[in-house]
């Protein structure tokens, strides 16, 4: 029994360290983009040695793939159930969700899009990147039962988020109401 507790404790600490390193990776991506990710940059952000990073993630590719997977799971967990919380004024609630992504979590949203685009160059990562579309599609299904229209709503929201991130568009609740009306 003593051996199991030691192994479980080590495993738990190892998983905790991996999570810390992945959070630090997202911090680097928020600040410098995917191109700024290096073992040294992540080690500095996590305040650990480079050896600690390379122990868990021997290559940068391993680190970025794990960061993409972790970020997708984190976003899915955050968005899970939001579709049932939309209330009587869904356009307003949708606008609040987008505003949250653009104001309070702007850096994280930008990092997620960086990783999303990274997956565009890596066919093996497309399934993982696509996984974070599922919680958004769940939310879209609260507005329409038509799967095609739900997919179009997610695509439109993606476009609105991207345009807002680059400063090409202000987010307006009326835009959401018009979009929802078109897709009903």
Explain what you see:
- With 184 residues, this protein is mainly α.
- The protein is built from ten helices and no strands.
- It has helices at residues 2-32, 39-46, 50-56, 60-79, 90-104, 106-120, 126-131, 133-141, 147-165, 173-183.
- Helix 1 (2-32) crosses helix 2 and helix 1 crosses helix 4.
- It is elongated and about 55 Å long.
- The relative contact order is 0.10.
Please summarize the sheet with the most strands: none
Q: Count of helical segments?
A: 10
**Whole-Å distance between the termini?**
59 Å
Tell me the number of strands: 0
- Quaternary: single chain
**Radius of gyration based on Cα positions:** 19 Å
Low-confidence stretches: none
Helix/strand structural class: mainly alpha
Q: Report mean pLDDT, rounded to a whole number.
A: 84
Order of helices and strands: HHHHHHHHHH
Strand fraction band?
A: under 5%
Approximate helicity band: over 70%
- Give the overall shape: elongated
